[in-house]
Amino acid sequence: MTSSTAQTISMSASLQDLISGLVDVEVDALPELAVPVTGIQIDSRKLVSGDLFIAYFGRNHDARDYISTALDHDVSAVLAESGGEWQGIRILRGKPVIAVDNLTAKISEIAARFYGRPSEALSIFGITKPVAHNL
Description:
135 residues; alpha/beta; Udp-n-acetylmuramoylalanyl-d-glutamate--2,6- Diaminopimelate Ligase, Chain: A, domain 1; disordered N terminus
């Protein structure tokens, strides 16, 4: 009998690296954006210190309503779907809150950058024709 153990991988990236080219500002020119990010979260109930909170429009909610909660959890930064009062970059409680156009479409790229593009290391193969039904 073999036992398996869960392994925790420590991840970290700079906010500048995660959002470069995805926002309408020169991220290297703003020292407020030179912060480390140790996790990415879209659920404000699961936030821990150092996370990047991504506040986007969901089917039944607007996660921007939880930005204050995110800041209570000492997140590194917040990315918020732009619109209404959320425009540009502002510093709230010492943390950058960045409005991003079409944020929902950019989440996968941000996650790929943070996790080191794991999908590029996958091998894909397929089995077709007469052999496939024997598997």
